[in-house]
Amino acid sequence: MGKGPFSFRRSGSGSRRRHRKIIVPPESPPPPTSTTALLSAMSPADNASNAMISGGGGGGGGAIATTKVKKKASGARLWMRFDRSGGSELVELDKNAIIRHAAIPTRDLRILGPVFSQSSNILAREKAMVVNLEFIKAIVTAEDVLLLDPLRQEVLPFVEQLRQQIPHKTQPQLRGPAGEQESEMQVPTGRQWLPVPESAEGLQSELPFEFQVLEIALEVVCTSLDSSVADLERGAYPVLDDLARNVSTKNLEHVRSLKSNLTRLLARVQKVRDEIEHLLDDNEDMAQLYLTRKWLQNQQLDAHVGATTLNNLSSTRRLGSTRSGSLVTSNLGDDNDVEDLEMLLEAYFMQLDGTRNKILSVREYIDDTEDYVNIQLDNHRNELIQLQLTLTIASFAIVIETAIAGSFGMNIPCSLYHVNGIFWPFVLSTCAGCFFIFLLILAYARWKKLLGT
Predict the structure, then answer these.
(1) CA 314/CA 308 separation, integer angstroms
(2) Residue 81 CB neighbours (<10 A)
(3) Higher pLDDT, 128 or 191
(4) pLDDT band at 236, cuts 50/70/90?
(5) Is residue 193 over pLDDT 60?
(6) Cα-flanking dihedrals φ and ψ of residue 167, to 5°?
(7) Phi, psi values for residue 451, rounded to 5°
(8) Best label site of 61, 179, 244, 450, fewest CB within 10 Å?
(9) What is the DSSP letter of 150?
């Protein structure tokens, strides 16, 4: 049975394949979600290949027998494999199978684990590239890409982009007679014919397969971050304007939540940006990411060694092998050419830098709003201090009159007690004197600029 896209296959030591039966409900199927819509987009060959993991049967009374699903192999996880021709399949692989397939150390699998889920890494290995960007966790080789947890909601756009773009981008564009160039400039791999690197004369191809995958991953991640920043901007400015108009506990709580989201989003963007910047600063690391070039060079070298061994007695064949050796040498001499990858990374570095600047502009607006609110609070605080000072001056004036009234309230003999009609004139004159003292102290406070105008 041929392997089509989304066919399940178990790999790893000691794993077996077991057929199982599933229950087909009689009622109509539920409306498709994002995951079911992706699975329904498979070709008939894909659906035929999926029959290897499921089977249905019916009895006379409509009863359907079911079997228990085989337990996953120890350490096996769900991966999606895309090859350079556009084919895809869902597989379950354990650590040993992945290490044998991609020739990567065990620590690279830990980078793709949940412990480093918030980190961003693009690591170059001898035969693979380990990509850990936000929610995209993949192992890319010159022939295929293994994508971890492909059915997650945030990973589905990346899967869809791979399905749409990889079959088109991997087709080389030839100039001149197609038959001659295909016979002279292509190398057999045992499974398919692949073009030699772009430096070969007469061949103009797209980016290598691994860079196509990296470009799609960066595009999906940058689009996701841009969308998050846009949502943050739409929610930030109304909240900050409400806080500027009314400083309340509710508005302050909204701003606190906004700042927390902004800090997390800025850290995510900064991690991806720093990883790209790290690659741009190291040409050796970028050269190690040219997996297709190294893969083709190894194949050409093997073909050259085989041709030299078989035809070492013929001078004409030796001349042809010498030409082949010069082609290999020229290809090996281009290892320091990282212009394509550098241009690719610079483009997304600038996009991430623009996203980072948007976040910084929102943070500056938050800081400006907080400064404005603090100025408002300081102004209110100053007004309260001035009011308190005014009331203190008034209290001092009233205390003088209270002291006079208290002295006359004592049982001390005084001749004024026997004077008729002196009470109200005395009270009014005392109040006028206290009020004059109040105005005098108030004018002094204004003269010293302790009170506002």
Answers:
(1) 10
(2) 23
(3) 128
(4) very high
(5) no
(6) -60, -30
(7) -125, 150
(8) 61
(9) T
Which DSSP category does 33 fall into? -
Strand partners, 132: 121, 137
Distance, in Å, from the CA atom of 73 to the CA atom of 16, rounded to the nearest integer, reads 9
Q: Does the pLDDT value for residue 221 go beyond 90? A: yes
Residue 60 sits at φ, ψ, to 5 deg, of -65, -35
Q: Locate 349 and state its tokens.
A: 């570095």
Q: What percent of the chain has pLDDT over 90?
A: 34
Alpha helices (H) in 281-338, listed in sequence order:
283-288, 291-310, 315-332
Whose structure tokens read 């096996």? 76
Q: What is the Cα–Cα distance from 177 to 172, expressed in whole angstroms? A: 14
DSSP state of 284: H
User: Which amino acid, 273?
Assistant: R
d(CA 227, CA 32): 24
The β-bridge relationship of strands 88-93 and 9-10 is parallel
CA dist 83 and 291 (Å) reads: 14
At residue 55, φ and ψ (nearest 5 deg) are: -155, 145
Strands, E assignment, 58-210: 77-83, 88-93, 121-124, 128-133, 136-141, 144-148, 173-174, 186-188, 193-195, 203-204
Can you state the percent helix, strand and coil of the chain, rounding each to 5?
60, 10, 30
Number of helical (H) and strand (E) elements in the chain, helices listed first: 13, 11
Helix (H/G/I), strand (E/B), else coil: 21: strand
Give the mean model confidence (pLDDT) for residues 232-260. Answer: 91
Report the residue count for the chain.
Answer: 453
Can you give the C-alpha Rg of the chain in angstroms? 40
pLDDT reading at 254 higher than 70:
yes
| CB-side neighbour CA atoms (13 Å) of 171 | 4
3-state secondary structure of 55: strand
Helical pair 339-408 and 423-447, crossing angle rounded to 10 deg:
160
Burial 191-208 (b: 16+ CB within 10 A, else e): eeebbbbbebeebebbbb
**Residue 243 CB neighbours (<10 A):** 21
